[in-house]
């Protein structure tokens, strides 16, 4: 499999809900359009931010179809297809491929703790069922499973269409060790917003983030500054957006991004219960951050 | 709501699968019958052991209907109805009640980290939708959410049909603090097998466990010894079954209980992928433990 | 080495300081006398509670000499001799033996993380230098080093005068595993006050505690109830003293025991800086607990 | 107090021991000379690497006197004066000042967990006793105490000669938050070798490290590359020395640096027991790393 062509800022979509709780495809279309117009280098539908875990099967299918039709190949797409069972993960991966996804993302979601063999075989099953690349996603905070660097290397070795790694532990040492172990040849992506400056400096191929829904120009400018090796500018841009990156990550992406989009004029509804809309205190804080960053948003 | 009548050893059912992956209701009936004949004081269908998280909605519905019909009121039942969304948890709780469940169990399952308000409101929504008691279940190892003692007390206070607490952190101090804070009046249950001796001594009203699928007489004898204040006997019985309790808990309940049941003559199939059948090394170890305990099983 | 004869409640001494910061031997004598008169089964000078880590070499020597003279063989004694260097630990152990200690206690104190070989060799060096038994002490909370059950078993095997284990992790599973691995033959002691009921039920040979400085009768009654297998009484006694046990452990033993002794009429001064006397809020809480327990203290 | 003039690579000294266990001042002089000749920007005697915690008072005094005489003002010096008691920390700080130290470093070493007030008052006591700046040192791995960013800010605010912060948690977010909270005005230093690239990029004023005993040119070149904003070069230099930085940090600095110095021709003896010389396997690995880096050491 050739080196993946996905580099840069990968923007995550939210999944808008109407007042009656159904998926609001019209608003989804608008949010995708905003992301693409802002200049992100790729789009990632149905990720954690997209509340993929809270959708029914039929909702999930309608969102993936609609998203791919609206992206329409203008930028690459990475569809999150993770599910608790292997069978359903495979079905979702096949559906994503059929809809034209550039790649799929797989988190080793679990209820029971999985053995290493079970994890590897899960990736093998997905890999065997599709022809597009897989981005392995490590995020123990949401999945409950922490993939060690050694295990990631083993999966990279045994499942040939796993060609990308999204690291969200927040521990930069994982990236250092992936880089060293593969001679800088594996494409790794930063999934922890407040670590972005360092991850890019350490060699990350991209930044997986929901922040471009709110501050795309600042996100893209940070990416560009690092690419130009303009360290002074990169540091300044990073600290400028740091509090927002830290807050949306800590407080929860669907909750904060949906609140922020409404502040910016796009009503995408509330997250799905048990998740609740951002409370007044959080909203005031987020509003303050957005106002402060408004000039160069 | 009156004090719950559920005391003693609460046996968890597995969910058998046929070779084609479908639910094997005939085997489920046999496993329920074994548990009831063994003398357990209550039955808990569709818990963690029952792979409830891995079932489709229609499978889940067929299992709860079939289980309640087969239990047929001979012992109380506690049906696990947890789901990632509040809406589906409510639906499952209502279905369990309609099928005749004595109580439901609710784990604050989550993908995104929930605020305390979101957790309380989740329990309130379930509580308002049903008339039977709720057993609150705290198990950060599977749910990713650790309910502090303070939060549990708040839920007990604000949601009147939450009358029981199943604690599975493995930290006996949680039970001490629940006991002290409620003057010994809240019914708490042990969900951590290798902590059973201590939890019962500390005042637990019951023991939620899948072990009676394999060694019911030892489990019940331990319960009885503590009730009779026969400390010498209780300690001896506990250490006798300790390694098995520790192993099935550490290695995963669906995996080990299904393997053990087959060794004991009841084929309930494999757990659902990504979970795999117990490997040869684990099987040999489990077989050794079961053989050793065979006399007084 | 024969089975140690130390069983029961092992009372820890504080180290009183005069207003000028020097050791107050007169007050030390009184506190030792109080402990012995209360009926504790053994005395442990210079432990964590005794601020051994904060004493100069000459202070340490004067305290061990004075303590042993005042205990005068009326009960067994276990002297804590831990130091960051092996050389000084050996010197202290030899001095303790020369002064008549029944046994010494050794915590693998460390600044740099030690390898398993370094830990084993540390115990070997102490063991080779003395003829009395060693109580191995595991308390990662103060030492920074957590001795696994496997490593403890290795040390028990390789250093013949390590015959006792004091476990202070607060994790009852460590005691279960020690018990099972040695067929109940190793003498283990509880060092985590709020775990006492369970540790004794699980088979602990004793309870290492500073609480008898304040509530000796309750501590001894709990021990006796478990020895008589009176579970109802043991549970009741444990929960009665639970809040005090939990508080002194969590808030720090030198700080709280010194404050409590003053409330009970024995002025032993303040702990040594950076430790400060208990603040007014803590003092009010502790006073309330002591008053409540006063009848059966 | 004016902004500290300490910037760049701050080299830590080891404390050489002769075969009889005594301090080997001649070798110490040679190791200081090597560091200064290599071009480090400052020297830090008696830190963790210098086994300060394992020295007697008189040894400590002789080392600080000798070190300061040999540094002779050619570069600034930061002497670690941490001790378990406040009194002895103050004495050491005063002695360091008397010997000509540019600044002192204070780790909140503890046996008993300290309250925030106790920690602040400890720094106040040291601050009041000397006229030179204090570098606050946060390293929960060795001290057992983790100073939150909020507490560090409070100490910076309340103790006027605390003007520098050495952060060794390995969590880059601490540096981000210090930077943001002080508008980039507090001088923070990286104490976690494998985080150096990122810490410098994030704005650290210096790098506290024992590595210049072995690979000074690579360390200094990395510092220089970041100062010149040469990101490509900085990344390349960092990954080149990464494995050595990671290994000496993980395996223990006195152990590995002493082994490495011997390989490079300077025999500084073994670390003090319980620390042992690097074992053969570790030595072979370290030798391989040093050989590989030899050209540009």
Secondary structure tally, helices of chain A: 12
Residue stretches of chain A low in confidence (pLDDT < 50, at least 5 long) are: none
Structural class of chain A: alpha/beta
* Rg for CA atoms of chain A: 18 Å
Instruction: Supply the CATH superfamily name of chain A.
Output: Aldolase class I
Question: Element order, helices and strands of chain A?
Answer: EHEHEHEHEHHEHEHEHHHH
Strand order of the largest sheet of chain A: 2-1-8-7-6-5-4-3
Share of β-strand residues of chain A: 5-15%
The overall number of domains of chain A is 1
Major β-sheet profile of chain A? 8 strands, parallel
- The coarse silhouette of chain A is globular
Helix content of chain A: 40-55%
Quaternary structure type: homotetramer
The CATH class label of chain A is: Alpha Beta
Pfam family, one (chains A, B, C, D): DHDPS
GO molecular function (chains A, B, C, D): 4-hydroxy-tetrahydrodipicolinate synthase activity
Family (chains A, B, C, D): Belongs to the DapA family.
Protein name (chains A, B, C, D): Dihydrodipicolinate synthase family protein
């Amino acid at each position: 499999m050739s080196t993946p062509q996905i580099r840069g800022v990968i923007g995550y979509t939210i999944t808008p809900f109407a007042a009656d709780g159904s998926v609001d495809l019209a608003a989804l279309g608008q949010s995708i359009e905003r992301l693409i117009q802002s200049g992100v280098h790729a789009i990632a539908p149905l990720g954690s931010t997209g509340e993929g875990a809270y959708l029914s099967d039929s909702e999930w299918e309608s969102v993936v179809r609609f998203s791919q039709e609206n992206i329409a190949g203008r930028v690459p797409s990475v569809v999150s297809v993770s599910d608790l069972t292997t069978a359903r993960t495979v079905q979702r991966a096949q559906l994503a491929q059929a809809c034209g996804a550039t790649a799929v993302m797989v988190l080793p979601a679990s209820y029971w703790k999985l053995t290493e063999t079970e994890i590897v075989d899960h990736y093998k099953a997905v890999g065997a069922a599709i022809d597009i690349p897989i981005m392995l996603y490590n995020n123990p905070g949401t999945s409950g499973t922490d993939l060690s660097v050694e295990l990631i290397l083993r999966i990279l070795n045994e499942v040939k269409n796993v060609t990308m790694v999204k690291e969200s532990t927040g521990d930069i040492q994982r990236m250092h060790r992936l880089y060293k172990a593969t001679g800088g040849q594996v494409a790794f992506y930063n999934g922890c917003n407040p670590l972005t400056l360092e991850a890019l400096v350490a060699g990350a191929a991209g930044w997986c983030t929901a922040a471009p829904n709110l501050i795309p120009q600042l996100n893209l400018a940070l990416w560009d500054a690092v690419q130009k090796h303009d360290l002074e500018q990169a540091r300044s841009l990073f600290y400028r957006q740091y509090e927002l990156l830290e807050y949306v990550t800590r407080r929860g992406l669907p909750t904060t991004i949906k609140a922020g989009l409404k502040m910016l004029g796009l009503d995408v509804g509330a997250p799905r219960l048990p998740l609740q809309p951002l409370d007044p205190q959080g909203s005031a804080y987020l509003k303050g951050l957005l106002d402060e960053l408004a000039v160069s948003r």
